[in-house]
Design brief:
heterodimer; A: about 450 residues; alpha+beta; PmbA/TldD fold; 2 domains; 6-stranded mixed β-sheet; 9 helices; about 20% helix; about 40% strand; B: about 500 residues; 9-stranded mixed β-sheet; 7-stranded mixed β-sheet; 11 helices; binds zinc ion
Chain lengths: ~450, ~500
């Protein structure tokens, strides 16, 4: 059965007032390696169906949601029945709304796109060669390459039919000296692996392990830091996840205004930076319509299919929007700005390359990545975490050696006000969150007074 | 809806063509030259109920049914997973697993060799009395709403977030050695989190229940055992007190740590640090490695001589408890730290021989039919001292310190040295007496220093099995449930940070 037929079959069985059906075909292939050898690998395919049945009308509308993997036609019937039974027995849904009207897109009946191990046909041999070169240079490589294609079919009883093909890929490599005393990392996100240049990754790993041949130790304290795009991405993605308008309006987040309401309109930084999402961002295109399997503070099952377009979350330094559903927009009186599956940060007038920015730094710490980022205090969005796989001291525009790792305690919202320099924006992989969020475009930021709270012995 | 006696495996799972598909897959693998082949079919039911201020925010029921074939061909792994349950599809999937092994051979420089395990045949069910899937959804929601409403109506409480998660996991495993096992596990986790806001300043605090996730059924909420009435009754008072509490003065304090907090410190600083695959470097690109390297086995002084850490996959109601793991190895119990010294690792069949073990201790687990089994955490627990003190006695023994209850924020570095934890509530201890709450507390230490400072370990009466549903590991990411037993324990002169001061400039 093709996914579009599953959607039509489910809708044809509808006996409640409204129904929205999401069918997603996933295919995935991956390679994992450690110490210059393969450790695990695999290919997998799955087909998942979510049925959102809506019973009742007006203030009495209730949604019932059921999700399951699908292997044959009888599974579809069982899922529809479960969703309908849940809708009929449920209390009215607080976020009840009309389902999203619309038309059938032309591509709806096309087959799902699928990936296979062939996506690695150039990458895998190049990786094998790299293992050989690395072993010869006393370097151990550890890493992961993954390619996933999810094709989403969304249909509802109001006639809307949408299809979206989402390729997601990444490669990450940790390089260690043979004694494992020096460590560095390189990562890229990709849609098809055609743009992955193993030689480029190799150069980055060797350069940085070279920098670490001279090691220095520094005490905890506040330092000017150069946050590379991957680290900026990890901080901004966490901030994005806490940017629910309803939570802010209720006084429960860093974006709450004391006394009530949200901080929308408030200037967060003098830096002319803008944080936004755009489903059409070149190289990180994502679904241009809302997809929700369950309701929560930033998504509603009733909103499935809502069109998405570029949204500025921070506009030239001022907070300009928070994540909304139709329900939360009603409650908070804000514009309807649903969350979107990519995130970009751009600084007006930034024209430096990453290399330029390092060369124009008098004294600072150049980081490689951040790791184990967790929320310590929601009031200020204070996050803790560690520097990982290389902290390099820059003096007079040059890297002079590697220093010890640190635990930091910092708020991404607060550090935006301490930006003293930025590079141009490039597509980058958020290392910590790449299991959930890979589509980020970020600059390198130079930030003053970054709080390195304690020293970590990890190397 | 299932109406079945506890202790019996669901008919819906047994009705799947388990043996027939296994036979087809294993025959294909054998014919293709595989030296090891395993067929694993799983059905995982998930139930999630989320309430916001006692109103239903989202309810979702999921069902994941699928299978995988894993082979070793000429010393290289191959793995393929699918959902199509036709005999042709399972043969195709087995061939794909063999293909994956062939394609991967050029990048595999270390032939895979598994430790032997005798063949097992059997069925096993985890220990529960009431299958949550036998309870009408409305009844579950009604109970959660009543308790949420009780919290919300209490003075000083502005919001209540409620979450209920339940999982039923069925696994069928068959391999070329003749092992055929069928298992069913149930686990659940109810959580209530109350929020108080000071309208004038905009300051807010939260206080969550510390009831652990458990390998039990719905009876965990409705029958004697866990004292929900007491915890829900006291929660609003604790919250209001916390909002008004003074911030901690940063410095060094003696800490009495409750099992509701200590389980997570055990998880991060011992559980993960003694996973052999991590110590060998298999996780180096993801969550990292471990300071507890195999060359220190038998010599590394992990902590004080009071420290006895065990790993097990056998404890009743444990979240990591199974009868057989995902490589067909029987569940076991073993020492990890004895008298303060590192004496063991958590193993699977591939990595066990790397440090000279001739049998795996049964820690292979895959979180879903589509994922490959890897070494995952056993229930890793700190053993109480047989005649150890009560928590109250431990508090009496502290002159200037804190009593820390409940877990919250956690973070540890890539070799499991430097960690920082917060908690739900922090009681100031002066002269052996509790003197009210303080707030904005985080404790930060290096693993061996911290465990080395453990001066008192509580008795069996203080012991609680805590844990988590959501331990992450590996790439692609896998999520595993695990329990950690802990008594209360006292740690001397631990570095305590004030989190507000950390965020201030
Ligand atoms: Zn974990």
């Amino acid at each position: 059965m093709n996914p579009h037929e599953i959607v039509e079959s489910a809708l044809a069985q509808c006996t409640v007032d409204d129904m929205t059906v999401l069918c997603q075909e996933h295919s995935q292939t991956n390679l994992r390696w450690a110490a210059n050898t393969l450790t695990t690998n695999g290919v997998m395919r799955s087909l998942d169906l979510t049925v959102i049945a809506v019973a009742g009308s007006g203030a009495g509308r209730a949604a019932g949601v059921a999700s399951a993997s699908v292997a044959d036609v009888s599974d579809v019937t069982a899922i529809v029945e479960r969703a309908e039974a849940a809708a009929r027995s449920s209390a009215p849904s607080p976020d009840a709304a009309d389902i999203v009207a619309g038309e059938a897109s032309d591509d709806f009946a096309q087959h799902p796109a699928q990936t296979s191990p062939d996506v690695f046909s150039q990458f895998a041999p190049a990786l094998g060669d790299w293992f050989g070169r690395a072993a010869g240079a006393d370097i151990e490589l550890f890493g992961f390459a993954e390619h996933d294609i999810t094709t989403t079919y969304l249909g509802n009883s109001a006639g809307l039919r949408r299809r979206h093909v989402q390729p997601t890929g990444r490669v990450e490599v940790t390089g260690k000296s043979a004694s494992r005393s020096r460590s560095t990392w390189a990562g890229r996100s990709t849609r098809d692996f055609q743009d992955i240049d193993v030689a480029d990754l190799d150069t980055q790993v060797r350069t940085r392990l070279g920098w670490a041949e001279r090691s220095l130790s520094l005490d905890p304290g506040r330092y000017e830091v150069l946050l590379p795009p991957t680290a900026v991405a990890d901080l901004m993605v966490y901030q994005y996840w806490t940017a629910a308008a309803r939570d802010a309006a209720e006084g429960r987040t860093v974006f709450s205004k004391p006394g009530g309401g949200t901080r929308i309109g408030e200037r967060l930084t003098e830096s002319p930076l803008s944080l936004f999402s755009d489903p059409q961002y070149p190289g990180m295109q994502c679904a241009p319509f809302a997809i929700a399997h369950a309701s929560g503070s930033t998504e509603s099952v009733f909103d499935n299919g809502l069109p998405l377009e570029r949204t500025n979350w921070i506009d030239h330094g001022a907070l300009s929007a928070l994540g909304q559903t139709r329900h939360s927009a009603d409650l908070t009186g804000g514009a309807l700005t649903p969350m979107i599956d990519n995130l970009a940060l751009e600084v007006d007038g930034a024209s430096s390359s990453i290399t330029d920015l390092i060369e124009h730094t008098e004294r600072g710490l150049l980081l490689t990545t951040l790791w184990y980022i967790r929320e310590v205090d929601p009031q200020t969005l204070l996050l803790t975490g560690l520097t990982r796989d290389g902290v390099y001291l820059v003096e007079g525009g040059e890297v002079v050696g590697a220093v010890n790792n640190f635990r930091f305690n910092e708020s991404p919202v607060d550090l935006l006000s301490r930006v003293t320099g930025a590079s141009t924006t490039e597509i980058s992989l958020p290392r910590e969150w790449s299991d959930f969020f890979t589509r980020a475009a970020m600059p390198m930021l130079r930030v003053a007074d970054f709080n390195m709270s304690t020293v970590s012995q990890a190397s | 809806m299932t109406k079945q006696a506890p202790g019996t495996i669901d008919d819906e799972f047994l009705a799947l063509p388990l043996q027939a598909l296994a036979d087809a897959a294993l025959q294909t693998a054998r014919d293709g030259g595989a030296s090891y082949a395993a067929f694993r079919m799983e059905r995982i039911l998930g139930s999630s109920i989320r309430l916001r201020d006692a109103e239903v925010e989202g309810v979702n029921d999921t069902e994941d049914v699928g299978y995988s074939v894993r082979v070793i061909l000429d010393g290289t792994w191959g793995f393929a997973a699918d959902v199509d349950r036709s005999p042709e599809a399972v043969v195709r999937t087995a061939r794909r697993a063999l293909d994956v092994a062939r394609v991967s051979a050029p990048v595999n420089t270390e032939p895979v060799d598994l430790t032997p395990e005798q063949a097992h045949q059997g069925t096993w069910c985890s220990s529960y009395r009431i299958d949550p899937w036998s309870v009408p959804q409305d009844d579950k929601i009604a109970l959660l709403q009543a308790w949420s409403r009780q919290l919300l109506d209490a003075p000083g409480v502005d919001h209540v977030d409620t979450s209920f998660l339940a999982v039923k996991e069925n696994k069928f495993y068959a391999d070329l050695s003749g092992t055929v096992t069928t298992q069913q596990r149930i686990r659940l986790h109810p959580e209530f989190d109350a929020v108080a806001i000071d309208p004038a300043s905009g300051a807010f605090e939260t206080m969550g229940t510390v009831a652990p996730p458990v390998g039990r059924g719905w009876e965990f909420l409705t029958e004697p055992g866990y004292d929900w009435a007491d915890e829900l009754g006291q929660l609003p008072g604790w919250l209001v007190e916390k909002l008004k509490a003074p911030g901690i003065e940063p410095g060094r304090y003696d800490l009495v740590i409750d099992p509701s907090n200590l389980w997570l410190t055990i998880h991060e600083s011992i559980g993960h640090a003694t996973e052999l695959d991590r110590a060998l470097g298999y996780e180096a690109n993801y969550a990292g490695m471990s300071f507890a390297t195999p060359d220190q086995l038998g010599t590394l002084q992990y902590g004080s001589s009071l420290m006895h850490i065990t790993g097990d996959r056998t404890v009743e109601h444990g979240l990591s408890t199974v009868a057989w793991d995902d490589e067909g190895v029987e569940g076991q119990m073993f020492d990890i730290v004895k008298d303060g010294v590192l004496v063991g690792y958590q193993l699977d069949r591939r990595i066990a021989p790397r440090v000279g073990y001739d049998r795996s201790n049964g820690c292979a687990f895959a979180d879903s039919p589509g994922h490959v089994p890897i070494q995952r955490m056993a229930n890793v627990s700190l053993q109480p001292v047989a005649d150890g003190p009560s928590t109250e006695q431990m508090i009496e023994g502290v002159d200037d310190g804190l009593y820390i209850v409940g877990d919250k924020s956690w973070s540890i570095d890539m070799q499991r040295y430097n960690f920082q934890f917060t908690g739900q509530r922090f009681f100031r201890i002066r002269g052996g007496k509790i003197q009210g709450q303080v707030k904005d507390v985080a404790y930060q230490a290096t693993t061996t220093d911290f465990w080395g400072s453990m001066g008192v370990v509580g008795g069996p009466d203080t012991y609680v099995l805590g844990g988590a549903f959501n331990c992450g590991k590996a790439q692609p990411g896998q999520v595993a449930p695990v329990s950690h037993g802990a008594p209360s324990a006292t740690f001397t002169q631990v570095n305590v940070l004030n989190t507000t001061a950390e965020g201030a400039r």
